[in-house]
Design brief:
Blueprint: E1 3-4, H1 15-21, H2 37-56, E2 64-67, H3 70-84, E3 91-95, H4 100-111, E4 115-119, H5 129-135, E5 140-144, H6 158-167, E6 171-175, H7 187-190, E7 194-198, E8 209-212, H8 239-277, E9 282-283, E10 294-298, H9 304-313, E11 316-317, H10 333-337, E12 348-352, H11 359-378
Parallel strand pairs: 1-11, 3-4, 3-5, 5-6, 6-7
Antiparallel strand pairs: 2-8, 7-8, 9-10, 10-12
Helix pairs in contact: 1-8, 2-8, 3-4, 8-11, 9-11
């Protein structure tokens, strides 16, 4: 039996999405940048996909730049905006729990002479607006705050943060990767200057994403040489991936309300059973302001990796944190930002559900988890 509970890392490719993509690996393989008939026919499909994506995000197609994923989009936007607008200032604000593609980039920019502030979170995993106000400066160029965190699932008050940022005359970027499948997001209504999305987080293909830009704001190109994507990101198009992204986003948006309700019900059942069978667990982050598919649980006095390995041997796949940091054995800076003690940093498991997760999956997980925790505690060196 296989139970997949690592959907914040990646999701299963939807069957309809796969069907939509297949022709572009077979008979419709022409390069959309080519002038011949097949190339131009594919270019029309490319632009139609761009229009559909823009419509589902409630924005205009001239704001959509295709990338290999959100990590690339985050790098393109943050580096590109900061470098292109140095006449405006050199100050960047990010939250202390951003995805590594934002967090590590910010540290790199700081080494290169940019002024970077890391906005702290409270013990519930949420940034505090009053502290944010104090960080804003006249020379603040860009603020980058994710809509929802990839490890603990907490949702940030980006509407209020965007308003304050705009009043300060600064630009705002948000990593929407985790939120897009479950939150009702309108790019234009939020007044977002920049945003990032990856297809594989909402049952689309890997290797394709979007950078949403504001064409009126200066931004340096990511890849030079070829002229694709308005000279922002040159290179041959991943047309199959773009078509898959468009289809996946269409399905996700149309099913969002239904999926949100279903996933939350299963998640809440999971938590209820966890508390019943393993009463000394702790939840990392706020349960109220949280994505419906996320549970980040602390198991007292047990190593999280030991639980993960034991679960995996039973066919249950989870994670201890961000998949992008899985090879880094250091403790999660997200959990450190929550204020966890040293001995609590490595006792955590992230369970992330999907629309396909069933109550039977949860029952199987609980049955095995209860046995695993009991066994590991019996010989744990941590007392």
């Amino acid at each position: 039996m296989k139970i997949y509970l690592d959907n914040a890392a990646t999701t299963k490719l939807d069957g309809q999405v796969r069907k939509a993509m297949l022709p572009f690996y077979k008979e419709k393989f022409a390069n959309p940048s080519s002038i011949h008939f097949s190339g131009q026919k594919n270019n029309l499909i490319l632009e139609d996909s761009r229009e559909k994506i823009a419509k589902n995000l409630d924005t205009t197609s001239d704001r959509i730049v295709f990338t290999s994923g959100a990590s690339e989009a985050n790098n393109f936007i943050i580096r590109g905006v900061m470098e292109a607008n140095q006449d405006k200032g050199k100050h960047l604000i990010i939250s202390a729990i951003e995805h590594p593609s934002v967090y590590d980039l910010a540290k790199d920019l700081k080494k290169r002479g940019f002024d970077v502030d890391f906005l702290p979170i409270n013990n519930k995993g949420i940034v505090e607006v009053d502290k944010f106000k104090k960080l804003l400066k006249k020379d603040t160029v860009l603020v980058s705050i994710m809509a929802a965190n990839n490890e603990i699932g907490t949702k940030q008050p980006i509407e209020e943060l965007i308003k304050l940022t705009k009043e300060n005359g600064s630009y705002f970027h948000s990593d929407l990767v985790q939120a897009i499948a479950y939150e009702d997001i309108s790019i234009d209504k939020l007044n977002l200057d920049f945003a990032s999305i990856s297809a594989h987080k909402f049952n689309g293909p890997t290797g394709v994403g979007i950078a949403i830009i504001n064409p009126k704001i200066k931004i340096n190109p990511l890849i030079i040489g070829g002229g694709q994507e308005g000279d922002y990101r040159s290179g041959t198009y991943n047309l199959a991936g773009i078509v898959g992204l468009s289809k996946a986003l269409e399905i996700s948006c149309s099913q969002r309300k239904e999926n949100r309700k279903k996933v939350k019900e299963v998640r809440d059942y999971f938590l209820k059973q966890l508390k019943k069978e393993i009463p000394d667990i702790k939840i990392n982050g706020c349960l109220k302001r949280r994505l419906p598919n996320n549970l980040n649980i602390r198991f007292e006095k047990i190593e999280g990796e030991a639980i993960l390995i034991e679960l995996s041997s039973k066919g249950i796949e989870v994670s201890t944190g961000s998949a992008c940091s899985a090879l880094n054995l250091k403790s999660s800076y997200v959990l450190m930002a929550l204020g966890l003690k040293d001995e609590e940093l490595n006792s955590n498991i992230r369970f992330t559900l999907s629309k396909d997760t069933s109550l039977a999956d949860i029952d199987y997980t609980i049955t095995n988890l209860k046995k695993i925790v009991k066994r590991l505690k019996s010989f744990s060196p941590i007392k």
